[in-house]
Write a structure and sequence with these properties.
By secondary structure, the protein is of the alpha/beta class. The protein has a domain at about 20-140 and about 195-230: Vaccinia Virus protein VP39 (Rossmann fold), CATH 3.40.50.150. The protein has helices at about 20-25, 30-40, 55-60, 75, 115-125, 195-205, 225-230; strands at about 5-10, 45-50, 65-70, 85, 100-105, 125-135, 150, 155-160, 170-180, 185-190, 205-210, 220-225. The strands form 2 sheets. It has a 7-stranded mixed β-sheet with strand order 4-3-2-5-6-12-11, sandwiched between helices.
Length: about 230
């Protein structure tokens, strides 16, 4: 288990505290709609941090080709129909490029700045000419509207609380997922980024915001800086 990360509940738990069985049950949201509207039809997508394939499977159904990357072999065992690669995102170097690289699940908010930099460089390294990177950011109230609770239409209750005081800009967070037959928890570390800090982090990796894809500015389409200057 990574330092500062913990997970509890039935079944396998990944190094960052994610419960494989929970993510296998989690329904897909509006991510496929956002992605489909931002990239060319039939694009080859490199999905970094795919988990159990919640979004992967929806993208395959829409005609995209997906290479799914996750550090958990147990997660990747649940992925069907996509090429899978077991690797930490920050260490990935496939020596090939893709139309779209996707870094979702708030991975850009990794509490370790060095890991975040490596993740964004991995995004840039695997991007084909004319391609784009899709990134999911935290919402503005993610760390202020705590504790909070939401009942998902699929039948489980999500609770998010602070797991302690922030230290050096890093917030420990605890999530609880309660189903009628099981409860999972995850404690993890996340570094909030203002829009300016986020764009500075992109620039370090040679990337730049092309446009924000949603009104809440959570989903972002980024491109290489050099292509923005053409």
């Amino acid at each position: 288990m990574r330092e500062g990360y913990e997970g509890t509940g039935p079944g396998a738990i990944t190094p960052d505290g994610c419960a494989v069985e929970f993510y296998s049950r989690l329904p897909v949201g509006n991510e496929p709609d956002i992605i489909s509207a931002a990239v060319p039809a039939g694009a080859h997508i490199l999905e970094l941090g795919s988990g159990a394939g919640r979004v992967t499977h929806a993208l395959l159904e829409r005609g995209f080709t997906v290479t799914a990357v996750d550090e958990s072999a147990e997660m990747l065992e649940r992925v069907r129909g996509a090429r899978t690669i077991c690797s930490p995102v920050e260490d990935l170097d496939l020596e090939e490029t893709f139309d779209v690289v996707m870094l979702a699940s708030f991975l850009v908010h990794n509490g370790d700045v060095a890991v975040r930099r490596k993740m964004l460089r991995a995004c840039a390294r695997h991007l084909a000419k004319g391609g784009c990177v899709l990134i999911q950011r935290e919402g503005e109230d993610y760390h202020t509207a705590l504790p909070r609770e939401r009942v998902d239409p699929s039948g489980f209750t999500l609770r998010i609380t602070s797991a302690g005081p922030a230290e050096n800009g890093v917030h420990p967070v605890r999530a609880e997922y309660e189903f009628p037959d099981a409860v999972w928890t995850q404690t993890f570390r996340t570094r909030p980024l203002t829009e300016e800090q986020f764009e500075e982090a992109l620039a370090e990796a040679g990337l730049r915001v092309d446009r924000y894809l949603t009104e809440d500015r959570i989903w972002v389409r980024a491109v290489p800086e050099a292509e923005m200057e053409v």
